[in-house]
Amino acid sequence: MSENSKKIEKATLWDWVKAICTLVVVGVVCYKIYLTPIALTVDFPTLLSLLLALFSVGLAALFYFKATETSNTFYDNTYNFTKDIAQLLAKIESGFGEKLRNLDEGYSSVRDYIQNNSSSSKEIDDTKQKIEGEKQEIEKVLEERNKIVRQLLEQSQLQEEEKEAVANQLAEKEKELEASQRELTRMNKKLFVERIRRREEREIDPRMEEFTKDFIVRELDPDLIVKLPPSRIRRKVDEVLNQAPRQYIEDLEKHGFFENGINSDGINFIRRLAKELI
Fold it and tell me: Most buried of the four, 43, 112, 207, 243, by CB within 10 Å?
């Protein structure tokens, strides 16, 4: 223990020596600096250059912070605008998007019907009723769409320019409806031409119907003909027609049922006969 105590006393003594030497050196340096004459002479051009340099640095820093703030504000506004647009479009889509899809399905069914239906005046009247119903549905969708758009724009917190941008994006919906209306007009014209063509067609010979029932319908099974899709019916009927008499093929061509194989009108004709046998 005595040796350790001696070491501690020696270390403490050495620390005091170093501290006293440091104070002496610092004191001498300070005294020397105090005695040394210092004359700062700055002329006007140098002072002006220094001030301009400091002003430039300050202006650059101010511009940087202001640009950063403006950029952040711009990105925040862009994000909020995009989010508001997405919410608006989601609400509009939920309001009448389903009706637009129903209209599209209705147009497709009516189009297929006009292209593939049989020569029946009752079915033509049904088609006319469907078209009238589609017209009323279009008017209803337009009215609901305009109402929803007005309500959403009035309730939104967007600026006038942003509302105008929303209206421009919604113009695509307007184009879809206009295309649907043009399609409806085209179908009306086609229906008129189809009705005139059918008036000029001759009635199908009952003997041809009976031969078709015996040669094709009963051969393929009436229930199967009604259930199968048109593509499979066409394939099966063409296989049977490969063995059909030439006169029968000519009769099918004369009535517009055969064009390098059974066509859509011919499939509808065979399906109608199959339903009569069920």
Answer: 112
Query: What is the distance between the alpha carbons of residues 171 and 166, in angstroms, rounded to a whole number?
Result: 9
Name which of 246, 261, 130 is nearest 188 in CA terms: 130
Q: How far apart are CA 258 and CA 159, in angstroms?
A: 63
CA distance 264 to 112: 10
Going by C-alpha positions, the residue among 106, 108, 110 that lies closest to residue 124 is 110
Total-model pTM:
0.32
3-class DSSP string for 125-152: HHHHHHHHHHHHHHHHHHHHHHHHHHHH
Provide the residue ranges of all domains of the chain, joining segments of one domain with +. 60-200, 206-277
Tokens found for residue 177: 């409806």
112 alpha carbon, distance to own chain's centre: 27
* CB neighbour list of residue 49: distance below 8 Å, 6 or more residues apart: none
